[in-house]
């Protein structure tokens, strides 16, 4: 923040800033200032636990809401990376790096918050190993569950950002509960029977997003970016309102399949998960929404 972000306002360096970066500080750095301010407080609280490690879990539980700032940071990350690919090799950044005498360039540091949130879970897991049935174990378990929940939210929201072609506003669909890839067969009562027979055999690959108000079916597309990394996007295919769907938990002949149907079985979607465990997780989440 001091070596790069502040330098973007330094009059003596302004002429070196590439035009693609003009007024894009917020995109490049996301809410890093917010994370920095939070850590000034959080670090002191964690340092208090050096003498009393059993208090560590409480720090995490107390800051449960604040830790959501990571989700915001990660959601912005694809935009930040795209901007960095455009102007990361500019003289401005080289000059900042030279002044700081850093071996690594800025993008390595912009990745730190994403890595940090996963390091918390490792820390808490290690703590749990050392504290079987002692004071504070239950709190440690709760703190770990909190951090895992945040990582799941971050992961889900990273996928959600890549949905394309949906006409509405995904932020109005309620909380994103689950997302993942499935084999899907459809069976429509309307229309010609021929369609129905064809649909039986070859499944479609669909990426499902389950919100409290809606279930979205998307098709995953992988695109190669300039740097040959694959970035996934999900093109919207159709949606079902959760207030109008029903569910059949077991499908004859395959314990990894379940059905979601619409409008009194006018449309039926047979969904096959990659494991029974995954199927059961989805069913329990859908049940919660329906009840």
Beta strands, count: 8
Give the count of structural domains.
2
Biggest sheet details: 8 strands, mixed
Q: Compute the gyration radius: what is it? A: 24 Å
N- and C-termini, Cα separation: 47 Å
Superfamily (CATH H level) name of the largest domain = Dbl homology (DH) domain
Shape, principal axes of CA atoms: flat
Outline the structure in words.
With 291 residues, this protein is of the alpha+beta class. Helices cover 44% and strands 21% of the residues. The chain is built from ten helices and eight strands. It has an eight-stranded mixed β-sheet, sandwiched between helices. Helix 3 packs across helix 8 (137-160), helix 4 crosses helix 8 (137-160) and helix 7 packs antiparallel against helix 8 (137-160). The longest helix is centred in the middle third of the chain and has 24 residues, at 137-160.
Spell out the blueprint of helices and strands.
Blueprint: H1 25-29, H2 32-47, H3 56-62, H4 69-87, H5 91-100, H6 106-110, H7 112-129, H8 137-160, E1 163-164, E2 176-188, H9 193-201, E3 204-211, E4 214-224, E5 230-241, E6 245-248, E7 257-262, E8 267-272, H10 276-290
Question: What brief labels describe this structure?
Answer:
21% strand; alpha+beta; PH-domain like; DH_dom; 8-stranded mixed sheet; guanine-nucleotide releasing factor; 291 residues; phosphoprotein; Dbl Homology Domain, Chain A; Guanine nucleotide exchange factor DBS; 2 domains
